[in-house]
Amino acid sequence: MHWTLAKWLAVGTTTLALPVATHAAFPSFFADGDCEAVAGAQRNAAEERAEADLWLAAAKAKNAPDGEAAAREAAARAAFDEAIDLAREQFQARDQVCEVLGGGKYDPALSPGEFSTTIDNLYFPHVPGQTLVYEGNSAEGFEHNEVTTTFNIVTIGGFATRAIEDVVLLDGVQIEHATDYFAQRSNGDVWYFGEVSREFEDGFLDSLEGSWRAGKDEAKPGIVMLQDNHVGDVYRQEYFIDVAEDVAMVLATDETVKVPFGTFQNCLKTIEFAALEPDVFEWKFYAPKVGLVLVVDLETGDRLELVDVFMK
To answer: 45-56: buried (b, 16+ CB within 10 Å) or exposed (e) per residue?
Structure first.
């Protein structure tokens, strides 16, 4: 099944096609502005980058050894076409997200005094010293994922946040290590203030792509979990243009989920999406007083399941 944003917006219920968020806290996040204009500017930037890459590839092709120029030019043209298609798909996705969220600039008005590093949200509790372990099979191999809530408090843009370590191994080899920074607002919503994202290849740090922190280069915090969840609620989880643009929608609050660690009732079900990857969608299931218990990739059907919880 090929997923699109329109399908994402409609999945799980017949009443969710392009809803306008009605959660009481949402409207204050949006001042007068033009979300669609931001999306259009991002599309233009992506198309300009694709054209620049094409010219550079053409220059290299002209200077290539005899007999290679034509093949290189053809490859460069194919890469350009793919980049243009992606830019337009990203624009369409962003434009629909703008419609869902009501348009306007995304600029949440937050005060450090509203936040605590004690995170006890019903569906997203983080106990210092606790590790949740997830495992699952995919086409790439066997994934082992450990998420540990640390005792470390880090100040980001004046906000005290708690550091969460997220380590991923594929067939026993580390491929990712992220440090996420969360804080809980006085109304119970858990906010996401930044991430250090590390990707590894052959045992070496290969990339920090996806890293961001609130307040740097106009990056904005987002909600990673609401206190009061209603079917149809939509919210930005992070917002750093062209780097971090995840959005989530609440699909259900009464799911029963069975994973190796146990069977859980009254689970929250969300679907997550990022315009940067228009074809990637995930269902996530959160159990009361436990947190995330299951992730399902809607394109492949791969499952990442909670298998253990322990204190370090």
So the answer is: ebbeebeeebee
Cα–Cα nearest to 220, from 198, 243, 199, 196 = 243
Domains and CATH numbers, the chain: 112-311 (2.40.360)
Residue 218: half-sphere exposure toward Cβ, Cα within 13 Å: 6
99's enclosing H/E stretch is helix 69-101
In 3D space, the residue among 87, 122, 73, 142 whose CA is nearest the CA of residue 292 turns out to be: 122
Whether the Cβ atoms of residue 180 and residue 164 lie closer than 8 Å to each other = yes
Reading the block at residue 193, the tokens are 């203030």
Do 306 and 132 form a contact (C-beta atoms < 8 A)? yes
Q: What is the Rg, in whole angstroms, of the alpha carbon atoms belonging to the chain?
A: 21
pLDDT exceeds 50 at position 232:
yes
pTM summary value? 0.85
